[in-house]
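If you are new to this repository, start here. Below is one unmodified record pulled from the training split, so you can see the exact layout before writing a loader.
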Amino acid sequence: LVAIQSLRAGRISYFDQQRSYHRLPIDRFVQWRSNQTPAHQVQRYPMIHLVDGQRLRGQWIGADADGDAILWQHPLLGLTSISLDQVSGYYAPGGSGEPGGPQSSGAAAVDTITLTNGDLLMGIILSTKESGVLFEPDGQDHPLLLDIKKIQCLTLVTSDPFPGSPGPPGFGGGHMIYFHDGSRILTQTLAIEQDRLLL
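And here is the target side for that same chain:
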């Protein structure tokens, strides 16, 4: 356990438990964790998961004109347009916020939607709409417009966005920042100024 003092010019300055001061390059560290533990076990906020491992707390605001992206309001990032190709799942408050359903075992290559009444739908998400998604269930020729307020969780099957790569571009050299609300944000640079973390 250490007391972080600063993060500047690629170096972390800290006091160790014996109150000795150290200043080391950031590449000497594997992980940095706050000594506070998130209090929630059940998800308290709507959350969108991305294929690169990021998770964004926030709110579904709508869709772009083509229906290929979700408009998402994040408390720190503001209004963000997220392509459906980058989305692995959406989770409403009250659930575990973790992927589930038939496809998580690799048994099915379809999108799945769990409704707030517990019904499970399997098929293909065709596009996003202002209030939800256009979804074509397996075995049906007519798509359904599902209101986001009736969706507890949706999980998308996405092709590998980084073929032949161990992960997203730059992830090995970047930093995944974990927030107490469950958000995870991938960033290339970090700095601390007074009591603020700059990404």
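Two things worth knowing about this chain: Residues 37-41, 99-107, 160-167 have pLDDT under 50 and may be disordered. The longest strand covers residues 120-128.
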